[in-house]
Amino acid sequence: MSYPPTTSAPQRNPDQRSTLAEIHQRTPYWLLAAIILGVVFALLIITDENYQIIFDALRTGIGITVKVSLVSYALALAAGLLVALARMSKRRLISESATFYVEIIRGMPMLVLLYIIVFAGAPGIVAAINRVGAFLNQAGLTSMGSKLVGLGVRDVDFTSRVIIALTIGYSAFLSEVFRAGIESIGRGQTEAARALGMSYWQTLRFIILPQAIRRVLPPLGNNFISMIKDSSLVSVMGVADITFKGKVYAASTFRFFETYNVVAYLYLIMTITLTLGLRALERRWKTGE
């Protein structure tokens, strides 16, 4: 009696098994869980009418949140670098002034700083601009002076004010990040560059800063993520970001649970996407590609 030939399961070669094991080890399970949760919530928004209405009410605030975060962070990077260089200055007056700025601003809660800049700082700046305009009028430059004199506090909208406040607040933190990165570069590289005839600014631009930024990219990314989350504080000033839109909608419909679920979902999408982008950039710079 003959039996049909048995078929065995296909065997993976050692290379395939090692590849699968490597993929298994490198798979970020937290990201997989976050993606599954995000997809489930996205389907809920698509299929549930209440969540659709909430999302439509909140999505107009996404642009404000992104604008405030990006503009504030870009300005804070530039200001933070200047403050860091000032702290490392050999002139004591400049160094002490920068240190005073950093310590005072870092020790102040961000919400308090927002209140100070929005309700006290902005009027003070406008008043100073008006004085400059009056001086220009007396000097005969009436075409420019009249514009500055006519500037009012109401001409500076709250979005611009909160951008200034976030810039000031985060420039103090970023200055310490830049200072740590610059001081981590060996002095021998600076001395070698100066021996080759490079100026201070050329050494800083072509030798020191490219290496320092690579080293401080993780804390810079963390500060950017923190700024996106802290941008929700501008809602208390009436700026129509995601949080403000959610607060208004929840107060009018009493759907607090559903509304703030969507608010959290939108912030998580932005922060997790940014986190993944920064990690990809870190890997690329680390491998030198």
Task: Please give a structural write-up.
The chain is flat and about 65 Å long. The chain contains twelve helices and no strands. The N and C termini lie far apart (65 Å). It has helices spanning 14-26, 29-47, 49-58, 62-87, 92-106, 110-138, 142-149, 158-183, 187-195, 200-230, 242-253, 256-287. Helix 4 crosses helix 8 and helix 8 packs across helix 10. It is mainly α. The protein has a single domain (36-287), classed as Orthogonal Bundle (MetI-like fold). The model has no long low-confidence stretch (mean pLDDT 86).
SSE layout and pairing:
Elements: H1 14-26, H2 29-47, H3 49-58, H4 62-87, H5 92-106, H6 110-138, H7 142-149, H8 158-183, H9 187-195, H10 200-230, H11 242-253, H12 256-287
DSSP helical segment count: 12
Number of domains: 1
Radius of gyration: 27 Å
Gap between N and C termini, in Å?
65 Å
Q: What's the helical proportion of residues? A: over 70%
Short note summarizing the structure:
The chain is an all-alpha fold and 289 residues long. The protein has twelve helices and no strands.
What characteristics describe this protein?
mainly alpha; MetI-like fold; 289 residues; 12 helices
